[in-house]
Amino acid sequence: MTLTPSETYDLQFLSVEEDWSYDPSEPTTPCAHLDLLKGKPYASVGIALLPIRHSWEAFALLNWGGWNACPLPEENCAAFRYWGERYSAKIISITHDIVECTVERLPKDPEEALELAEEQYAYCTDLVDQGTGTIENLAASLLVSYTWFFWWD
Fold this sequence. Notes:
153 residues; globular; 32% helix; three-stranded antiparallel β-sheet; alpha+beta; two-stranded antiparallel ribbon; 12% strand
C-alpha cells in the first residue's frame, strides 16, 4: 500500500528495534458473532448476501465508514483491494464497528509482517493503541493469523 505523506499517520514516534524478537501469539479467530463481554455467541446474527464480485466492494455498496476514526468507504475499498491482491484477504464480517477478514497468504518473514503491521496501524490505530500495545506485537500476530480483525470506537 503506497500512501502519500498527507494520507499517512505520523509513524515517526514508533520505535522499531532492529533485532526485535517475536513470540508469535495465538492466531486470531473470527469473533463478530460473539458477545465479547459475555464470552458467548449472540442468540442470533444477521447474514446478508451482497451482489458484489469482490468482498472489498461491500464498503461501497453499504456506504460503510467515515465516522469516528474509521476510514471513508472508498479508503476501506482501497485498503482491502490492496490486501486482497497481496494476501488474498476476503472480508467475512462487517458489524457497526468491526471488520473481519480471512487471508490465504501470511507475511513470509518478520520484515514483511512489520511492514504489514505498519500499514494496518495507519489504517486502524486501535489495533495497537487499544489492542496489541506495539507494532511488533501486531506483526508477530500477523505471522500466524489467517483472520484479521479491525475495529473503531
